[in-house]
Amino acid sequence: MKVRAVYEKGDRVRFLGHLDVSRCIQLALRRAKWPVEMSQGFSPRPKLSVYAPLPVGVAGLREHFDAVLGGRPDIGTLARAFAVSLPEGFVLHELYPMGDEETPFEESIRASSYFVDMKGVKRETVKHALEAFLEAPQVLFDVRRPKRTKRVDLKPFVLGVGEPEEADNGRVVLDMVISHDKGRTVRPQWIISSLGEFGLDFDPREAIIDRRKIIFG
Is the pTM for the entire model greater than 0.90? Predict the structure, then answer.
């Protein structure tokens, strides 16, 4: 039996990386006594898939994972046990069984919808930088890895950006939709950083970013 959970990675745990999130989920599954099946081989692992990794510092309001279970346990019992076993900062929203012929998650994901909150910037400056970004034929960004640097064109990944709005305490907020292409995507921080080319002087590490939902196609 395969089940899918929809959960929240909240503000308290936004700085956990993907591996740490996966460990928290595995620990909660053990506490909840879910009958998770194990893989075969010399190093058996739980049949658990935690999808669409979030960048460190980004919260997720509707994240997903799948687990393969032995037998056909009651969904309600599983959900209640798991919900109380999660560490503080995580919340279970939904749990439901998956059909055998469901499209694999990574093949069905189309985009991620983000909410971006920036403090200490002016709405007009953000607006003009975004307009210039969207009008540019391409926006190249250097992704630095430990062993190499890869140049990525951010422009094709940006499916939409909402109108920047002023909020309390000198903040500017906006929505951003970023595409996924066969597992490839870009981080919202990269897009914010690239706006420096268009007149926005802002450190992307200072932005508060939440992924509101994953969009399926």
Answer: yes
